[in-house]
Amino acid sequence: MATRKILVECNGPVTTIVINRPQARNALDNEAAHALAAALHEFEADATARVAVLTGAGGAFCAGADLKELGGGTDYFPWAGSDEGPLRAPLTKPVIAAIEGHACAGGLGVALFCDIRIVDETATFGVFSRRWGVPMSDGTTVRLPRIVGQGRALDMLLTGRAVGADEAIAIGLATRKVARSTTRAEAEKLAAEIASFPPIAMTSDRQSAYESFDRAQAAAIRREMELSLAARRQESQTGAARFAGGEGRHGSFERK
Q: Alpha-carbon torsion 25, 28, 32, 36, what sign?
């Protein structure tokens, strides 16, 4: 990477992307936001990379846009609404957020961009930019209602209040809660597990789930069928043969 503000580590099929501005609670200035977009693009383009983990350094996830840069007269570009934005559209492969500390304002948007959000007890979500008059331009107003429902989303968007880890789990904003300071390790463990699955069926099911929001139910089901064809032709018979041969017996899903 051209900047140390975003670090990338590869371990087999798992790519870990670290926002590395701990002195600013990993707030993204424009340079870091562009670097994050580049890291996600490189992960997407790498045929050997199956799953990404996105996290922050120094006990924080991401505090949003760097308001000191904005206050100094440098405008930030929309992270979701511009073609070069890091959060413009879901990738074709899974991304897991490992969240400790603040995931607020645009940092909430970064978390919502991910498929799965793993938190520890320190995690805090919120539209804290409400008090400064900084609007969301990171997909939060679109993705948050789809994840937690319209009523809960509006409560967070209008009040700017803090939502802790336990409430985040209760409303579906966070997916799993783990022991303190273990979010990255647990996310990487989960990423490796997901990466071990036959990839065509996994990615087509994921794509269908995302596309269904923009379609009527009947059209969404037809699209699910279309997306499933490649896996049915290339993976299903092999997988069924493994099952018939004894894998999965007695509820075991471990590979032999």
A: positive
Q: How far is CA 113 from CA 40, 95, 141, 210, in A?
A: 11, 8, 12, 12
Contact 52, 94 (CB under 8 A): yes
Residue 133 near residue 69 (C-beta atoms within 8 A):
no
> What is the C-alpha to C-alpha distance for residues 43 and 40, in angstroms, rounded to an integer?
5
pTM for the full model? 0.86
Give pLDDT tens digits for 31-40: 999 999 999 9
The values of phi and psi at residue 120, to 5°, are -115, -175
pLDDT (average), residues 232-243: 59
Angle (CA) 105-107-108 rounded to 5° is 70
Q: Does domain 6-195 have CATH number 3.90.226.10?
A: yes
Do the Cβ atoms of 40 and 32 come closer than 8 Å?
no
Q: Write down the domain spans for the chain.
A: 6-195, 199-247
